Amino acid sequence: MNDQIKQGEVNKSVWAACDTFRGTVSADVYKDYVLTMLFLKYLSDVWQDHYDEYKKQYGDTPELIDELMTNERFVLPDSANFTTLYKARHEPGNGERIDKALHAIEEANVGKLRDVFQDISFNSNKLGEEKQKNDILRHLLEDFSRPELNMRPSRIGNLDVIGNAYEFLIKNFAADAGRKAGEFYTPPEVSELMAEIMDMAEGEEACDPTCGSGSLLMKCGRRVQAKFGGSKKYALYGQESIGSTWALAKMNMFLHGEDNHRIEWGDTIRNPKLLDAENRLKHFDVVVANPPFSLDKWGVDTAENDRFGRFRRGVPPKTKGDYAFILHMIETMRPRTGRMAVVAPHGVLFRGSSEGKIRQKLIEENLLEAVIGLPEKLFYGTGIPACILIFRKTKADDKVLFIDASREFKSGKNQNQLTTGPGSHVSKIVETYRKRESVDKYAYLARPEELAENDYNLNIPRYVDTFEEEEEIDLVAVRAERWKLKADLAALEEKMDGYLKELGY
């Protein structure tokens, strides 16, 4: 275990593997190839490690070893092993061989990996014509065969190293991917903030109806592990509409050791897949999401006759789907324990017409608990500031807490950040949320009457006054200072004239 690898080494090596594609294929295309290869390499290394271990113990009984290997978390056919693919890397047909290997892995683990590789093809023309494609994939196999990327459990010990490397790649792809990044990744500090506020407990179930690559959902699970001595007594549910992103979420879950999950593929508004035994929307203790901002064509055509009754408070505008996701999430909160945190653009706080009516009803039903304003440039692909809305089925009071956290952040060139840990931006927001009291120029606990007086407009500056009065200027003191400076200047001029005369000017 002396050569246990450091996280930084693995991260550096997997990021270097991307060099194979740079300049040939765009990042939003090659990210799926690199992430899938990382998953394949990990499965192969675990399989080989366990096989070698059994061979040491039962070397003379191969039948027993084969029998023991059928109980592995993932079963790996010989043809689908990374080593087999690597050995054949100089031969034509790398793309086809890798695709066949992925198909064989899926077949052997259909309960866990059904359809996970259907949206990725290493034999695709996206990688160029046959010779170029074969060369790129040979380099990729060579990159992943480097000693730093030996992911055998006997060497790395902790599965977190691999999960973290996967997360590191996703984060870096998000930083590079511009506008598309919001589709699959929420900045980790924002996920951390939402998970801390939701404070998931043992035995609870969490759901993210627009789960992307699953990072936000897993942060909720990690909260349980941190509080209850590594406990895995919780379940994670998610739905994702983009096939390739859904596959990322599945692989991400497995690489983090999150086997107790159910991630469905499909459009949450038009075709919610997380249903109970009676074919109704399943309820959850914790519901979190970072849905697409103001989605056009979100499914207004089917909303009027929604069989789940999600839009009984009103149908959102057809070109802005923010409240469609919020209303879906409201319906999936479990009675009594249900709470939710959703990221949204500021427009949801003050826009009128149907959105105004929906907002008023949610407030009158005493479901809205808090509104948290975030800094600008926090999210990948958009510079606009967002907010987090917290709803709860059973509130302690009838008030709404407003927190203006928009002015405190760590500044970055392209991306601003919230700091985490003790004394950080995130801990200040969480502590303020938990205390539920007004804080001068930072938070305000509003009574229902105040919300009604403001026509249920939730724009944060209406409640949190951040105006800083300018210091009064003492004109007499300023005038005296000015006279003194003038006198000093005259004395200096006189001195300067003396020096110039001495020098003969």
From TrEMBL:
<keyword id="KW-0680">Restriction system</keyword>
<dbReference type="GO" id="GO:0032259">
    <property type="term" value="P:methylation"/>
</dbReference>
<dbReference type="InterPro" id="IPR029063">
    <property type="entry name" value="SAM-dependent_MTases_sf"/>
</dbReference>
<dbReference type="InterPro" id="IPR003356">
    <property type="entry name" value="DNA_methylase_A-5"/>
</dbReference>
<dbReference type="InterPro" id="IPR002052">
    <property type="entry name" value="DNA_methylase_N6_adenine_CS"/>
</dbReference>
<dbReference type="GO" id="GO:0009007">
    <property type="term" value="F:site-specific DNA-methyltransferase (adenine-specific) activity"/>
</dbReference>
<protein>
    <recommendedName>
        <fullName>site-specific DNA-methyltransferase (adenine-specific)</fullName>
        <ecNumber>2.1.1.72</ecNumber>
    </recommendedName>
</protein>
<dbReference type="Pfam" id="PF02384">
    <property type="entry name" value="N6_Mtase"/>
</dbReference>
<comment type="similarity">
    <text>Belongs to the N(4)/N(6)-methyltransferase family.</text>
</comment>
<keyword id="KW-0175">Coiled coil</keyword>
<keyword id="KW-0808">Transferase</keyword>
<dbReference type="InterPro" id="IPR022749">
    <property type="entry name" value="D12N6_MeTrfase_N"/>
</dbReference>
<dbReference type="Pfam" id="PF12161">
    <property type="entry name" value="HsdM_N"/>
</dbReference>
<keyword id="KW-0489">Methyltransferase</keyword>
<feature type="domain" description="N6 adenine-specific DNA methyltransferase N-terminal">
    <location>
        <begin position="11"/>
        <end position="144"/>
    </location>
</feature>
<dbReference type="InterPro" id="IPR051537">
    <property type="entry name" value="DNA_Adenine_Mtase"/>
</dbReference>
<feature type="coiled-coil region">
    <location>
        <begin position="475"/>
        <end position="502"/>
    </location>
</feature>
<dbReference type="InterPro" id="IPR038333">
    <property type="entry name" value="T1MK-like_N_sf"/>
</dbReference>
<feature type="domain" description="DNA methylase adenine-specific">
    <location>
        <begin position="160"/>
        <end position="471"/>
    </location>
</feature>
<keyword id="KW-0949">S-adenosyl-L-methionine</keyword>
<dbReference type="InterPro" id="IPR004546">
    <property type="entry name" value="Restrct_endonuc_T1M"/>
</dbReference>
